Amino acid sequence: xxxxxxxxxxxxxxxxxxxxxxxxxxxxxxxxxxxxxxxxxxxxxxxxxxxxxxxxxxxxxxxxxxxxxxxxxxxxxxxxxxxxxxxxxxxxxxx
Length: 95
Hints:
Elements: E1 2-10, H1 15-29, E2 35-43, E3 46-56, H2 59-67, H3 69-82, E4 83-91
Antiparallel strand pairs: 1-3, 1-4, 2-3
């Protein structure tokens, strides 16, 4: 199982558009066969920061996600164009 979070910071004026993009990206990502979990959040106390919790069955499923048309449309051509900062944290399950 592959688990990680992605924290992305945006400009305040982009918040509504980012929410729309994340909604569309989430809906499509959850339909991927190898996607176990895809949950976007706003970070409380940081109104311009989103955090996405992602889980995939394996590396192949994660790569398929990054190569999907919806990832290219909503993440690469959408989120990545508006982000001010991005940080990925890989996770290791305790049990």
